[in-house]
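Need residues for this backbone.
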């Protein structure tokens, strides 16, 4: 879906997404399930004029046959995968999952965002 906002560079887009996540974290605090933060972040991004699609499926192929769908929490402007977490800390599995999303989606950048603690945590994952 096209938006009516000017084209952001990737770094500018990351800043808007992270700023939006901080706004959600500040408003809701910690303690909710991931789905609550996902819906709030989509709303905040839309308020800022960005397109954020939730639960985006990407087919996984094996030898040219689709065998499964990999579902990303969120894709912003069709350019950044956002994986939301409510965990004590990011693990190697979270990073591997983000890298797999990027490969499946043929994108280059993912953001892991953790709402579990009073201070928002995030990590940039580049393929």
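Answer:
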């Amino acid at each position: 879906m096209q938006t009516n906002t000017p084209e952001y560079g990737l770094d500018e887009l990351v800043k808007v997404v992270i700023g939006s996540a901080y706004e959600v974290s500040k408003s809701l605090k910690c303690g909710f399930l991931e789905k609550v933060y996902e819906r709030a972040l989509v709303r905040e991004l839309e308020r800022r004029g960005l397109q954020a699609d939730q639960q985006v499926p990407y087919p996984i192929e094996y030898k040219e046959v689709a065998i499964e769908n990999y579902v990303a929490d969120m894709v912003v402007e069709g350019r950044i995968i956002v994986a939301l977490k409510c965990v004590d800390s990011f693990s190697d599995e979270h990073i591997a999952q983000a890298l797999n999303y990027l490969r499946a989606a043929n994108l280059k950048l993912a953001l892991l965002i953790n709402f579990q603690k009073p201070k928002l945590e995030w990590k940039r994952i580049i393929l």
